[in-house]
Amino acid sequence: QVQLVESGGGLVQSGGSLRLSCAASGFTFSAYYLSWVRQAPGKGLEWVSTISGGGGITTYADSAKGRFTISRDNAKNTIYLQMNSLKPEDTAVYYCAKGVVRTGGGIKEYEARGQGTPVTVSS
Questions:
Q1: Rounded mean pLDDT of 104-108?
Q2: In the chain, fewer beta carbons within 10 Å around the N or the C end?
Q3: What is the pLDDT of residues 75-97, one digit of tens each?
Q4: Helix (H, G, I), strand (E, B), or coil: what is residue 29?
Q5: How far is CA 116 from CA 5, 20, 44, 54, 56, in A?
Q6: CA angle 34-36-38, nearest 5°?
Q7: Do 8 and 28 form a contact (C-beta atoms < 8 A)?
Q8: 3-state DSSP call for residue 69?
Q9: Is-contact 33 52, C-beta < 8 A?
């Protein structure tokens, strides 16, 4: 079955950087778009970024543009999220997800997601 395992979260000061990783298994990794989504305390799930199977197409939420970079290594079955210039409002649990379907400003559904990795940005 699909397994997604995130790592790399932690506590960082405002303006700092973190690199999240997501190791995947149970499906043909390079054939699928994968995404990062996040959930801040007391809020719903928010889409952050998506990358195509080959890595050539990337999209970002307005909140992530210019600060976050999504990438993937198909040889390692891993996707990454490089987060720079972090802000307190980026504090959330970050999940990688497969099969994300977006609607309007939100997430309609997803096929699978990992257990998440928490990111806390202090001011």
A1: 83
A2: N
A3: 999 999 999 999 999 999 999 99
A4: helix
A5: 7, 10, 14, 24, 25
A6: 150
A7: no
A8: strand
A9: yes
